[in-house]
């Protein structure tokens, strides 16, 4: 494990960690509010009151403006911003992505960040946008690799160095880039050029990009998702293993009169009520906020409160082993987020390697839950059960069950398991009495596999009349199938 990053707790791919920097230790996952050195809606020295432990600003903007540069070189970055906690600096890659060029070299901006005392330094990488030709993505990735290798040799000492992972929307390039950077031992790994995916709600592709990069990196490396500032997608990104986010959304949205919630964004002019208990929403009514002279600042403050409230809930969910339940709730806030959730579970085999083997009670939240890592893990371990003699599988207690050599309980989406394990995770799951098709498909498939793995046992399956599924016919070929309402009628 990296000496600067300590993992304290885990759930799915998410984790609570401690990131050590020259200006203090930061608990992750967390958000770094973006501070524009020219315009500050909220003074940086007030950010801690919202929950911010670390900020991010743009070293290129500071470098290009004489009055900012001179103060930063004289007083340091922390003196310029008036913030005594950790500060990360971007290199100008965002301006490069927007304008096509910047008036600084990689070495110059690295040296400047080092001189002004940045806690996390970012090289001038090439942010390749989505959907470009593969050859362009490959060529720009090669340039980025050269610059990052130069940066790794250039930056020494206590300051942390970030190694951005690029590769456009090509998962194979993202994983290749991550594997290369892993061997160079960077301190933080930002995933770059993903803002266009988030702006166009392409969450399924974003999931593939994150997963590919994570698979190439060490599982103990801290990962930063560049430009991810809306709380409705934090849980999904954390479940994939992202530790740091940066948010300019709190200020950008406020300027446009937009009010952030975890379920989406509202325009303040269309709100009659403020659905939030933060200090701003508790003090003002919707009408008062609309008419306030400092409406922009108040909205920015609310947006920050909403942002960090979600971070705290995510951390508690990790502690409780409930992160995936939160992810499934959040991803139902928007159809495109639901696409992201479905894509997340296509990576369940990888997530299962990261997910703790024991944790809190499993809650079934919908069809996607049937593909969770816990369910996949159970399916892989069916061969551990060795059954002989007569065996009965049932959903709830039935007459005469004790006369069988083996008693198994059927619970979707898992399937059949020995009754002795009923109170053991994950079989203590809270599930619907009448499972949906996806849960029933997985459960019946696992049950059929269990029967086939134990040819020395004679199975009787007492199931509910509501269980209508094609797999029941296959089970009927290998076991006695009886519906509960017809079981041992007198």
TrEMBL record:
<keyword id="KW-0862">Zinc</keyword>
<dbReference type="Pfam" id="PF01702">
    <property type="entry name" value="TGT"/>
</dbReference>
<dbReference type="GO" id="GO:0008270">
    <property type="term" value="F:zinc ion binding"/>
</dbReference>
<feature type="binding site">
    <location>
        <position position="278"/>
    </location>
    <ligand>
        <name>Zn(2+)</name>
    </ligand>
</feature>
<dbReference type="InterPro" id="IPR004804">
    <property type="entry name" value="TgtA"/>
</dbReference>
<feature type="domain" description="tRNA-guanine(15) transglycosylase-like">
    <location>
        <begin position="13"/>
        <end position="336"/>
    </location>
</feature>
<comment type="pathway">
    <text>tRNA modification; archaeosine-tRNA biosynthesis.</text>
</comment>
<keyword id="KW-0808">Transferase</keyword>
<feature type="binding site">
    <location>
        <position position="281"/>
    </location>
    <ligand>
        <name>Zn(2+)</name>
    </ligand>
</feature>
<feature type="binding site">
    <location>
        <position position="125"/>
    </location>
    <ligand>
        <name>substrate</name>
    </ligand>
</feature>
<keyword id="KW-0479">Metal-binding</keyword>
<feature type="binding site">
    <location>
        <position position="193"/>
    </location>
    <ligand>
        <name>substrate</name>
    </ligand>
</feature>
<feature type="active site" description="Nucleophile">
    <location>
        <position position="90"/>
    </location>
</feature>
<dbReference type="GO" id="GO:0016763">
    <property type="term" value="F:pentosyltransferase activity"/>
</dbReference>
<dbReference type="InterPro" id="IPR002616">
    <property type="entry name" value="tRNA_ribo_trans-like"/>
</dbReference>
<comment type="function">
    <text>Exchanges the guanine residue with 7-cyano-7-deazaguanine (preQ0) at position 15 in the dihydrouridine loop (D-loop) of archaeal tRNAs.</text>
</comment>
<dbReference type="InterPro" id="IPR036511">
    <property type="entry name" value="TGT-like_sf"/>
</dbReference>
<protein>
    <recommendedName>
        <fullName>tRNA-guanine(15) transglycosylase</fullName>
        <ecNumber>2.4.2.48</ecNumber>
    </recommendedName>
</protein>
<dbReference type="GO" id="GO:0002099">
    <property type="term" value="P:tRNA wobble guanine modification"/>
</dbReference>
<keyword id="KW-0819">tRNA processing</keyword>
<feature type="binding site">
    <location>
        <position position="276"/>
    </location>
    <ligand>
        <name>Zn(2+)</name>
    </ligand>
</feature>
<dbReference type="InterPro" id="IPR050076">
    <property type="entry name" value="ArchSynthase1/Queuine_TRR"/>
</dbReference>
<comment type="similarity">
    <text>Belongs to the archaeosine tRNA-ribosyltransferase family.</text>
</comment>
<dbReference type="GO" id="GO:0005737">
    <property type="term" value="C:cytoplasm"/>
</dbReference>
<keyword id="KW-0328">Glycosyltransferase</keyword>
């Amino acid at each position: 494990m990296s000496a600067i990053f300590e993992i304290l707790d885990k759930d799915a791919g998410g984790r609570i960690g401690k990131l050590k920097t020259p200006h203090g230790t930061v608990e992750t996952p967390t958000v770094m509010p973006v501070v524009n050195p020219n315009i500050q809606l909220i003074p940086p020295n007030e950010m801690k009151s919202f929950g911010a432990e670390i900020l991010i600003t743009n070293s290129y903007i500071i470098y290009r403006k004489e009055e900012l540069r001179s103060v930063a070189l004289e007083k340091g970055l922390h003196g310029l911003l008036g913030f005594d906690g950790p500060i990360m600096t971007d290199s100008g890659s965002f301006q490069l992505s927007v304008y096509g060029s910047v008036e600084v070299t990689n070495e110059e901006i690295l040296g400047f960040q080092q001189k002004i005392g940045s806690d996390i330094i970012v090289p001038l990488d090439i942010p390749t946008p989505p959907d470009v030709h593969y050859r362009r993505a490959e060529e720009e990735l090669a340039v980025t690799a050269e610059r990052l290798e130069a940066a790794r040799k250039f930056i020494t000492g206590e300051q942390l160095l970030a190694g951005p992972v690029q590769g456009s929307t090509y998962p194979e390039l993202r994983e290749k880039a991550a594997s290369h950077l892993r061997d160079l031992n960077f301190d933080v790994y930002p995933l770059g050029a993903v803002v266009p995916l988030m702006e166009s709600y392409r969450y399924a592709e974003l999931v593939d990009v994150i997963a590919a990069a994570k698979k190439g990196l060490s599982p103990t490396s801290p990962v930063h998702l560049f430009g991810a500032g809306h709380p409705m997608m934090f849980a999904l990104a954390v479940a994939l293993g992202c530790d740091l986010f940066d948010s300019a959304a709190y200020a950008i949205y406020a300027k446009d009169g937009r009010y952030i919630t975890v379920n989406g964004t509202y325009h303040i002019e269309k709100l009659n009520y403020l659905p939030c208990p933060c200090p701003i929403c508790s003090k003002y009514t919707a009408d008062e906020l609309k008419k306030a002279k400092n409406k922009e600042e108040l909205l920015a403050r609310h947006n920050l409160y909403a942002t960090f409230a979600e971070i705290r809930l995510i951390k508690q969910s990790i502690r409780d082993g409930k992160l995936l339940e939160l992810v499934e709730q959040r991803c139902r806030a928007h159809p495109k987020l639901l696409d992201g959730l479905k894509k997340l579970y296509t990576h369940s085999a990888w997530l299962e390697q990261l997910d703790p083997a024991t944790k809190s009670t499993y809650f079934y939240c919908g069809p996607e839950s049937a593909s969770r890592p816990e369910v996949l893990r159970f399916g892989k371990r069916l061969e551990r059960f060795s059954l002989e003699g007569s065996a009965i599988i049932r959903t709830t207690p039935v007459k005469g069950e004790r006369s069988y050599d083996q008693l198994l309980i059927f619970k979707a989406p898992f399937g059949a398991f020995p009754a002795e394990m009923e109170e053991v995770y994950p079989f203590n799951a809270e599930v619907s009495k009448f499972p949906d098709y996806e849960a029933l498909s997985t459960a019946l498939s696992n049950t059929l596999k269990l029967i086939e793995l134990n040819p020395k046992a004679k199975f009787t399956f007492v199931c509910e009349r509501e269980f209508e599924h094609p797999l029941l016919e296959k089970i009927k070929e290998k076991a006695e199938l009886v519906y509960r309402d017809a079981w041992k009628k007198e």
